[in-house]
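Lest this sound abstract, we think one record worth quoting, the chain in one-letter code, the fold tokenised, each line plainly labelled:

>
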Amino acid sequence: MATPEFDLERDRRAIYAAAERRDNRLDGRLFVGVRTTGIYCRSICTAQMPKFGNCTFYAHPASAEKAGLRPCLVCRPELAPGDAKVDSVSKLVRLVLRRIEDGALNGCSVADLAAEFGVDARDICRATTHALGVTPTELAQTQRLLQAKQLLTETDLSIAEVALAAGFGSARSLSSLFKTRYRLNPSSLRRIKSVSTNLLDTYDYGKAMSFRIDYRPPFNWDALLMFLGERAIPGVEAVHDGAYLRTVQVAKHVGWIAVTPYLGTKRSRPVNALRVLMSSSLQPVCLQVLSRVKTVFDTRANAAEIDRHLAQDSLLAPSIDAYFGMRLPGAFEGFELLLRAILGQQVSVKGATTLAGRMVQAFGDPMTTPWPVLTHLSPEAGRIARADIGQIACIGMPGKRAEAIRLVAQAAHSGELNLVPGADPDVVREQLLDFPGIGEWTASYVAMRVLAWSDAFPLGDLGIKKALGMTRASDITARTDAWRPWRAYAAIYLWLSLSGG
């Protein structure tokens, strides 16, 4: 079934009916405000539906909060999947929203963010205000508040620790804004904490935190886990007992995560969510880690809409039937995936995995985790940038490829390459293609999995050519044009069709 497209003013009755049905296709895309209570809810909220005349509708939590509403404590809007639509707003707004959602304005200004896209800060302000009725600063403030609300609900972190993790200057600043915006003391959320997401003290894992990340169904966990497992970097990540495991380093903070499906229910309804177990050593950067997990598992996607669009092509339909709900597997760390892509040039997936394991042994710092398969941190760009070509080449690759790795490591370490989701894919692709030894396949693969660009497509991939029965780039472009703006997902389905499961 297609995802409904609504005009917030013209289609108020239809939106109300969809919310009354608890339509999960709208989760994170439309929010229902209630005049009588002063709150706003997700489309799937299980609380009693208010009368139509008491409802208002919003495309983003920031728009609802600007109208003076506060988030519902039942459906928890802070857990709603992000809006992954790509055809209703400008490219600039889509990229800016993604960067803000991932915390870009916590450490820089709107002018800094605008500079990433080669525009003026006023251009970004005009674009977001036109699309959503709010400025980038208002979007970022709502994001910080909702993230703080999640930490207050799901962890035992002190209010000062929550304020620091969520990007507030102090506990006083967080408390003041919480009282003004939500009419709540931050400490009051401790009384409604979910038992399933408390700070955990277990024999197996030591002291760890557990979080919930919601998504819109369908979600093909098994196919996604298979894809990630086949490409897991030895020592750094692994699939074990139905869980995705990996070591983590964010700035100076080092630890590990384990991701599994969330098995709880709410009011007899299954919860469409992932559970993220995280070592307590990552507490100060836990929100950054959660943002990266959302990217790896593509939790913002509207899989039903994507699959419906692509399944109209008879070539893709069998693979979509077999792997319905597949996501675009993202990168936990941008340079790590770029390194893996370069190592994978002209070799099999298994061969690239072997080379990646050798790279970890040579340049990754060892660490101890609860799992014997996790032994090292991912190699840092700075460390590889300082190595000589011979040190890199000795893991088993040509000197020219070793040189390419060192050059991109230097660019990533200096910040010249902005390898983050939401970075401008056209800019990053052109930068990558300027490096010797990096061609169209690598640049497109990075756009898919690092930048999370839904329309990236690796024209030169041998598997893609085989699946399409074509070799000329112009023919492939013409054949795949109908798949826009979801060609990256189509590429995943083509690869899965060749794997045979």
Notes: Residues 136-154 form the longest helix (19 residues). The chain has four domains: 12-79, 91-192, 195-300, 334-499. The chain has 22 helices and twelve strands. The mean pLDDT is 90.
